[in-house]
Design a protein that fits this description.
Radius of gyration: 29 Å
Low-confidence stretches: none
Distance between the termini: 47 Å
Length: 715
């Protein structure tokens, strides 16, 4: 299928052939129309078109993160990670309408006409995969062109709801772009009197024709406002988009005592305190299109809110479409341009240059698509980067292409003695871009195509945590050797099923515990190779706080930082000691505010050779300080590794030290090479590590030490 993408390095708009997405918890929709959001999308394009210096100035917070990475990971690693993010194309669009062709939800049937919402879902593509709560049926009497406005309409709808207006109230709308003109019509449908304010005379005239009682530019606004409502506006809705704070200042002058100002557009927020203080006016920043926005349970999983949360995203979408059906909202006069999908670059050029006046710009899709509707796309020049693959080399298939895969794993693929077969990801755009970059033969959105490919004999799984176990099981049953990123499983049931599949298949399974493959780790292990006493180990991780909404915190998808990250450090202790963990006692800081229960903890492990090790994991430190420090003490000797850039070994008063200035040596390249060369992994050790994280979780919950027994899972 064809999809519009933005190249984040050049800022160019491209239309590429990518695999059709597969359905999960929602539906796959064949698009008829999608609406270009001139404000949101053009701002992203303008940012992408800037130089690296310009991007840095526009995103100072991101620059700060990169500089912190330089301090902990080294300049080369930080640069590679930053460029990896920029090399991934960005999907555009978040409002479209079409017909359901595949359904994974009881709410919809194949053939339903639907409107779809959501950045990353309702994109400009021939087919889109949309979760159930971001999809609504289109009522009879509403055509696809009108329905394509639903998401933007629900943004306007939510802004009006935040104004809490009632019948007969006087409302000012500042900014008469698309959302402003929709807001005017929604307010009129709610029985309000409306004054529309803008600097553009044509938009003022259009607002008047769409029902605004009074329109005005800023010249003479006070007089017109006084005539419209002598005591001021009951509410002001700001839908303008500008860096200036002039709209919020004007709103303060227009609103009445104890009135409400609702900010919908992206404007400067230098609020004049004196004006708002004297009127005791309220300022509300409207959050997109209703309750549920940014809630992963609502948007991704389709878990609805109870009806007392009356106007969710989905219900706002339905309400907007009902107003369109009742002819209370006129969209025909807002559609100024319609472009075919192949002409998308021309549409964005129109918006960015302003060579013609525009309001609503639609992309139209051919009724039968481009004819390319499969979940697999062959790339015209596989291995185009000049890789020399040895005769008889294994063929590798990969599943997943997230940030970690692209920054830590896939950059090493070109140096491996393997042929790159297929790459599977959840979205076609990601699959196509990454497969093309690294030289895969094909890309797909159905990972079973990788497992069913007889030419592929080894599979790498680098997906979200909850998919590791089921995909690894499928791959083992398909007769493939498996490399799966950590954690091996997020619960004991998944771990047990993996062990069963491993035993039945006879295939190799390696877990992505890369740190044991680091050259610095190997030197530390050799240093303590002939120890006569148990070791005492301390692994301290100054992780920094991960945003609460990140998927890794999700109990289902991520398992939290204890399950997701602590496994690394326990495995490292196993590697250094050559011993298995047999008991763990863990304690955690109780959650308060943004602190999560399993993000700040200490876990003390006892190993079967008498060694003990403590993992200290915290999100409370300064990110500019070293992230990882591991110390080992035994036989009158000390070893220390800091951020896998600095190794210090001491014995009998003599010290040696190695420093890596440009980049970390975390062992990613070495672990992948070991896998493709067929080295036998320590599968039992990986199971022991995984059990230890589960036991640490239980120890935190119960307050008691927990035993770690491989026998309980059949090893």
């Amino acid at each position: 299928m064809k999809q519009v993408l933005l190249d984040l390095q050049s800022g160019s708009i491209q239309v590429e052939n990518v695999p059709v997405p597969t359905v999960t918890r929602g539906v796959v929709v064949e698009n008829a129309y999608s609406l270009i959001s001139a404000g949101t999308e053009s701002s992203l394009i303008n940012l992408a078109q800037q130089s690296l210096v310009g991007k840095a100035k526009a995103r100072p917070d991101d620059v700060k993160k990169v500089l912190q990475k330089v301090g902990t990971d080294g300049p080369l690693s930080a640069y590679q990670q930053a460029m990896s993010r920029l090399s991934k194309p960005e999907p555009l669009g978040y409002s479209c309408a079409g017909t359901v062709v595949t359904t994974g939800s009881d709410d919809f049937e194949v053939g339903d006409r639907v409107a779809c919402a959501g950045a990353g879902y309702a994109v400009h593509a021939e087919y889109v995969a949309v979760p159930r709560n971001l999809c609504v049926r289109i009522p009879d009497g509403v055509d696809f062109r009108e329905a394509a406005f639903t998401t933007v309409g629900s943004i306007a709808m939510h802004g009006v709801r935040n104004a809490e207006v009632t019948v007969g109230e006087n409302v000012a709308v500042i900014g008469l772009g698309l959302i402003g003109l929709l807001s005017v019509q929604i307010l009129k449908a709610a029985g309000c009197r409306v004054i529309g304010i803008d600097i553009d005379r044509e938009k003022l005239a259009l607002a008047a024709s769409l029902g605004a009682d009074v329109v005005s530019n800023y010249d003479g606004l006070s007089e017109r406002m006084n005539a419209f409502s002598p005591f001021g506006a009951d509410a002001v809705v700001i839908t303008a988009a500008t860096r200036s704070s002039a709209p919020i200042e004007a709103a303060g002058r227009l609103v009445r005592d104890k009135g409400r100002v609702v900010v919908v557009g992206n404007i400067g927020m230098n609020v004049p305190r004196d004006i708002f203080y004297e009127k005791e006016a309220e300022v509300v920043v409207s959050r997109s299109y209703g309750p549920g926005r940014y809630d992963r349970n609502y948007e991704e999983r389709g878990i609805d809110y109870p009806i007392y949360v009356r106007w969710t995203e989905r219900r706002n979408m339905e309400a907007f479409l009902e107003l369109v059906r009742q002819k209370r909202i006129d969209l025909d006069r807002l559609i100024t341009h319609t472009f075919a999908l192949d002409d998308a670059p021309e549409a964005y050029n129109l918006i960015n240059t302003g060579k013609e006046r525009f309001i609503g710009v639609l992309l139209q899709y051919s009724p039968n698509g481009s004819g390319a509707s499969g979940t697999v796309t062959r790339l015209p020049e596989p291995d185009a980067r000049g890789r020399k693959v040895p005769a008889g080399a294994r063929t590798l298939g990969c599943i997943g292409a997230g940030v970690h895969a692209q920054s830590a794993l896939y950059p090493h693929l070109t140096g491996l003695p393997v042929s790159l077969g297929g790459l599977a990801t959840a979205t076609g755009l990601s699959a196509h871009a990454v497969a093309k970059k690294y030289g895969f033969s094909y890309c797909t959105t159905d990972y079973h195509r990788i497992l069913d490919d007889p030419d592929i004999d080894a599979v790498m799984i680098a997906t979200r945590n909850d998919l590791h176990a089921p995909m690894a099981i499928d791959a083992l049953h398909a007769g493939k050797d498996v490399f799966v990123e950590k954690p091996l499983a997020t619960d004991i049931d998944g771990l047990g099923r993996i062990i069963g599949a491993w035993k039945e298949s006879g295939q190799r399974l390696m877990v992505g515990f890369n740190r044991r493959h680091s050259p610095l780790a190997r030197k530390m292990k050799e240093f303590f190779g002939n120890r006569a006493t148990p070791a005492v180990l301390h692994y301290r991780v100054n992780a920094g706080q991960i945003p609460p909404g990140h998927w890794v915190h999700d109990d289902e998808q991520g398992g939290g930082m204890l399950i997701s990250e602590c496994c690394h450090f326990i495995d490292f202790m196993q590697y250094i000691t050559g011993a298995r963990p047999v008991q763990v006692y863990a304690r955690a800081i109780e959650p308060t505010g943004t602190l999560r229960k399993y993000d700040n903890f200490q876990a003390t492990l006892t190993f079967d050779d008498g060694s003990i090790g403590t993992v200290t994991y915290t999100t409370l430190g300064d990110r500019s300080y070293a992230k990882e420090t591991v110390e080992v003490f035994c036989d009158n000797a000390v070893g220390r590794i800091t951020d896998f850039r600095d190794l210090e070994l001491r014995r009998d008063g003599k010290a040696s030290r190695e420093k890596r200035w440009l980049a970390q040596e975390k062992g990613f390249a070495e672990e992948l090479l070991a896998f493709v060369k067929g080295e036998e992994p320590d599968f039992a050790g990986s199971v022991a590590t995984t059990l230890a994280t589960f036991a640490a979780w239980e120890s935190i919950d119960t307050g008691t030490p927990q035993e770690i027994d491989l026998g309980q899972v059949g090893l």
